[in-house]
Amino acid sequence: MASKQAPTAALALAVGLALCGGPLAYAQAQPATANPATLAACAACHGPGGQSSNPTVPSLAAQPRTFLENQLVLIREGLRDVPVMKGVMAGVDDNEITVLARYFAAQPAQPLPGAVQPEKARAGAELSRRALCGGCHLPGYVGQNQVPRLAGQPEAYLLATMKMYRDKPEPGRDTLMSGPLAGMKDTELDSLAHYLAHHGK
């Protein structure tokens, strides 16, 4: 009986792959490089190569690929409301999202301009230790999987985002961040943002 089932199962698998195009056909269907027009639209706000020079806009460079893919899908589907990105993401399919995420994840992160304030950075480091930021974001705050990179992000952006998580997470945001930031004062979040923004200098 087993000898009859094996060829039947193999045939079913072969037919299924043929109907779906198979893994090779899927890989070949994916564009090798990101659409230049889409990259230009991204760079208009996030900077060339995803390195933001706008203090209120996050950098995409060196973010984990899975995190980028998840966020782009959430924004495209309207589960995260980012009005300025609605037009950019309209019509962008899953394959292009994967290519965009791969592109930005591979870009090197650049250190932020500006001097580190030692006392503020020390206070931020202690807050990060107490909040266990390195547990999810890793000790170097480079992020992993669906967890974003914090190191080198614009300071004002980090501060505004942490206040949002502390006070009222927006739709589509990971509410797990509310717990570690609960009870932190604005001045403490300011020190934490400074430390993370300039981490590694």
What keywords describe this structure?
single chain; 201 residues; mainly alpha; Cytochrome Bc1 Complex, Chain D, domain 2; 2 domains; globular
Walkthrough of the structure:
The chain is mostly helical. The chain has two domains: 36-105, Cytochrome Bc1 Complex, Chain D, domain 2; 118-197, Cytochrome Bc1 Complex, Chain D, domain 2. Helix content is 58%, strand content 0%. The protein contains eleven helices and no strands. The chain has helices spanning 2-20, 22-29, 36-46, 65-76, 83-89, 94-105, 118-131, 133-137, 155-167, 178-181, 186-197. The model is unreliable at 1-28 (pLDDT under 50).
Mean pLDDT: 86
H and E order:
HHHHHHHHHHH
The percentage helix is 55-70%
User: Terminal Cα separation, in Å?
Assistant: 67 Å
Tell me the CATH architecture of the largest domain. Answer: Orthogonal Bundle
Low-confidence stretches: 1-28
CATH class of the largest domain: Mainly Alpha
Strand content: under 5%
Structural class: mainly alpha
Compute the gyration radius: what is it?
A: 21 Å
CATH topology of the largest domain: Cytochrome Bc1 Complex, Chain D, domain 2
What is the 3D shape?
Answer: globular
The major β-sheet equals: none
How many discrete domains?
Answer: 2
Number of extended strands: 0
Count, helices: 11
CATH superfamily of the largest domain: Cytochrome c-like domain
Topology at a glance:
Layout: H1 2-20, H2 22-29, H3 36-46, H4 65-76, H5 83-89, H6 94-105, H7 118-131, H8 133-137, H9 155-167, H10 178-181, H11 186-197
Helix pairs in contact: 1-2, 4-6, 7-11, 9-11
